[in-house]
Specification:
- The structure is a single chain.
- The protein is mostly helical.
- It has a domain at 5-67 and 97-114.
- It has helices at residues 5-15, 20-24, 27-44, 52-65, 68-74, 104-114, and strands spanning 79-82, 86-89.
- A two-stranded antiparallel ribbon has the order 1-2.
- Helix 3 (27-44) packs across helix 4 and helix 4 runs antiparallel to helix 6 (104-114).
- The longest helix is centred in the N-terminal third of the chain and has 18 residues, at 27-44.
- It is globular, with a radius of gyration of 17 Å.
- The mean pLDDT is 84.
């Protein structure tokens, strides 16, 4: 896998409407996000080849999840306010496993690269 911050920058700039959180991140943070995205996908889909663009899709999602505001939510803060600026309240805290943030597009790209159909959610039975 030849993933890089440079290639991620180009992919995210070209393929995402909402890319400000990625663009605002420092280069070191971008590299950490890419590392986590690649290792998480590698563990979750260990039987499959992970294309670079699937890593970049997940990296863009993680940049939003771990932006400055959402980072507070991840740490369990329910809300905060800045006098004269605004008040921020989170609907609920995001304390979920990191693989819960893998976008369906990453599943689709991995599936296409491996000739399988992957879905992000399991379908189960319901009892009435």
């Amino acid at each position: 896998m030849a993933i890089s911050v440079f290639d991620a920058d180009a992919y995210i700039a070209e393929n995402f409407i909402d890319n400000e959180d990625w663009n605002d991140a420092e280069s070191d943070k971008k590299q950490r996000i890419i590392n986590v995205a690649a290792s998480t996908l590698g563990r979750k889909f260990s039987a499959y080849t992970i294309p670079d663009n699937a890593v970049y899709e997940f990296a863009a999602a993680l940049a939003i999840v771990y932006n400055d505001t959402n980072r507070l939510n991840n740490h369990g803060i329910a809300g905060f306010s800045i006098t004269g600026v605004g008040s921020f309240n989170f609907k609920d805290t995001q304390s979920r496993q990191i693989d819960a943030f893998i976008p369906q597009t990453a599943y689709d790209l991995i599936g296409e690269a491996n000739g399988v159909n992957l879905v992000s959610r399991r379908v189960g039975r319901s009892v009435r």
